[in-house]
UniProtKB/TrEMBL annotation, chain A:
<dbReference type="InterPro" id="IPR027266">
    <property type="entry name" value="TrmE/GcvT-like"/>
</dbReference>
<protein>
    <submittedName>
        <fullName>Sarcosine oxidase subunit gamma</fullName>
    </submittedName>
</protein>
Automatic annotation (TrEMBL), chain B:
<dbReference type="Pfam" id="PF04267">
    <property type="entry name" value="SoxD"/>
</dbReference>
<dbReference type="GO" id="GO:0046653">
    <property type="term" value="P:tetrahydrofolate metabolic process"/>
</dbReference>
<dbReference type="GO" id="GO:0008115">
    <property type="term" value="F:sarcosine oxidase activity"/>
</dbReference>
<protein>
    <submittedName>
        <fullName>Sarcosine oxidase subunit delta</fullName>
    </submittedName>
</protein>
<dbReference type="InterPro" id="IPR038561">
    <property type="entry name" value="SoxD_sf"/>
</dbReference>
<dbReference type="InterPro" id="IPR006279">
    <property type="entry name" value="SoxD"/>
</dbReference>
Length: 177, 86
């Protein structure tokens, strides 16, 4: 048998540090999309099984290495655990996403060049669907930065776009008056 | 231009995809050939208030009915298409 070696989406591209900002890939873990059927109640059963119920629109919940994000209208991403059978459409998307963390004091300025949202006005744990460059992304505000998720096939573009913005913001900050 | 998505809040135009007139929500009855012809090909083009379907493509994925003024670019209301089509 051939032993295939699994590669993370941004393998060989990250981490990168430019000035005060660092971009690093987050470990590949389990990601399940949960889209409750119309009118179905899944929160209680989910909480019983994985310890977390559904978050509000634009929110997230996390505990003991398990996280659940609002991911779109009527859709949630359970990260780091497998959901029980629920009255919902459930798909395993673990290998479908590239997840990176952008940290550093100028995170907001880097994001301002690529994303139409005002990242500074988001609270820790807030989740938004929006654009990073031309890519549809899931954006989670964190203490000291953001977590960004894009489709796996966009990993190289995401790193390129972010790295370019990181360089530009850092260069601008060092220009003489 | 910004659209106030009922799910996501005030968002930049680039997150949205424009489909066309909100008339698309009113499907004609099966077999109504005249109705289907009008549904597909005949559109009002008002210089004033118009209702369109927009998709929050890079946001929450909702279809929206956006009522706006084509002459002043003012947006009067944004409603979930699922509410309108009920
Ligand atoms: Zn939306």
């Amino acid at each position: 048998m051939i032993d295939l070696v699994a590669k993370s989406p941004a393998a060989g591209l990250l981490p990168v540090t430019v000035g005060a900002s660092t971009l690093s890939e987050q470990p590949v873990t389990q990601i399940y999309s949960i889209a409750p059927f119309k009118g179905a109640h899944v929160s209680t059963a989910l909480k019983k099984a994985v310890g977390l119920g559904l978050p509000n629109v634009g929110g997230s919940k996390s505990e003991d290495g398990v996280e659940i994000l609002w991911a779109a209208r009527g859709q949630y991403f359970l990260i780091g655990a497998k959901p029980p059978p629920l009255p919902a459409a459930i798909t395993d998307q673990s290998d479908a996403w590239c997840t990176v963390a952008l940290t550093g004091e100028n995170t907001d300025h880097v994001m301002a060049r690529l994303c139409p949202l005002d990242i500074a006005s988001m609270e820790h744990g807030d989740v938004a669907r929006s654009l990073v460059g031309h890519m549809s992304a899931i954006i989670v505000k964190r203490k000291g930065g953001v977590t960004l998720m894009v489709f796996r096939a966009f990993a190289k573009t995401l790193v390129h776009d972010l790295q370019t913005a990181m360089r530009s913001v850092t260069a601008q900050a060092t220009l003489p008056d | 231009m910004r659209i106030n998505c009922p799910i996501c809040g005030d968002r930049d135009r680039r997150e949205f995809y424009y489909l066309g007139a909100a008339d698309y929500l009113n499907r004609p009855a099966e077999g109504d050939l005249d109705g289907i012809h009008k549904y597909l090909h005949i559109r009002e083009n008002p210089a004033g208030v118009t209702k369109d379907l927009w998709h929050h493509e890079s946001g929450c994925s909702s279809w929206l009915v956006v009522e706006r003024n084509a002459t002043t670019h003012e947006i009067h209301s944004v409603t979930l298409a699922s509410e309108v089509a009920k």
